[in-house]
Amino acid sequence: MKKVHIQMDGDTGFQIAPMIDVVFVIMLFFMVMAGAVKVENHLVTNLPGTSESDSADFVDEQIIGVSETGEVTLNDDAYDGQSKELPTLKAALSRLKQSSDASKNQCVVTIVSEPFAKYSRVIDVLDALAVAKISSVTFTVGEEE
Amino acid sequence: MAGGGGSIEGGEPEFQVAPMIDVLLVLLVFFMTITSMEVLKVDQDIVLPVAPDAEKREKERGEVIVNVRWNAETKKARYSLDQIEFDKIDPLKEAVARASNAAKAGIKAGWNPAVRMVIRGDASLPAMEIQKVMGIGAEAGIADIAFSAASKE
Question: Residue B105: pLDDT above 90?
Answer without folding.
Answer: no
